[in-house]
Amino acid sequence: MSTDPTPTRTRTVGRSDRWFWGTAGAVCGLYLAVLGGLIAADAGYIAGIGPFAEDKKDAANPLWSALADPDIRHSLHLTLVSCSITSILSLLTATPIGYLLSRRQFRGRALVDTLLDVPIVLPPLAIGVSLLILFQTLPASLRDAVVYQTPAVIVAQYVVASAFAIRSMRVTFDQIDPRLEQVAQTLGASRLQAFGWVVLPEARSGMLSATLLAWARSLGEFGPLLVFAGATRGKTEVLSTTVFLELSIGDLRSAVAVSLLMIVISVAALTLARVLGGRTRD
């Protein structure tokens, strides 16, 4: 008389799966608790609740006080403008490069792919120093018009944000069936026409996602900005350097308020990018 081992094996696999997913969920929950704790601590400090109630007392709300500061308002304005310009430039760069890497095999492709990741893995301060050295080789008129001026903010953001946008666009193009372009070319369209009429409409959501990702990355840029653009109040100061400046003068309340504002903005941008990215995959 034989005994069917299938039920026993099924129970064993079921327990193994529960342990596996339970462990993964616990690790995820622990890390989310850390991130949530960071945000909750900032919000509690601003609101003056819990352990921060004594610190606040009758002081004005730090967030409104920070936004009433002309220097911080200028910083917010420059941040929004520079991040928007940077995200557009990043998309214009990422679209052809992402398409090239997705569709074309060529000699040196692996090297190109590696070099495109350098801004992602390179220490931020090193990027700022490298930009300074690069502009030392350019004509003095161009160097003086960019270095430690407002354009330097956009250049520093662009170098890093473009690398993230390129990765996003490559994934987008990888998910678009190349046969659609081949059919268009079979019907008489050129490569450029197939790209513009077939590929770009299909990649629309991915392009928006890449733009938002570049925007959010630009928002959090600090190291290259500090070295290459400086942190001059009313001139090259953006929100990330505002946090540094407020801490340097001992104004913790304003630093926390600006940090919380950046968190809210970045979470909104990243959430929208994830939603658009999910639509692209669907």
TrEMBL record:
Q: What is its main location?
A: membrane
Q: Where in the cell is it found?
A: Cell membrane
Q: How does it assemble?
A: The complex is composed of two ATP-binding proteins (CysA), two transmembrane proteins (CysT and CysW) and a solute-binding protein (CysP).
Gene3D superfamilies assigned: MetI-like (1.10.3720.10)
Q: What is this protein called?
A: Sulfate transport system permease protein CysW
* Membrane is among the record's keywords: yes
Q: Which residues form the ABC transmembrane type-1 domain?
A: 76-273
An example of a Gene Ontology cellular component annotation for this protein is:
plasma membrane
Which residue ranges does UniProt annotate as crossing the membrane? 19-41, 78-102, 114-135, 147-166, 252-276
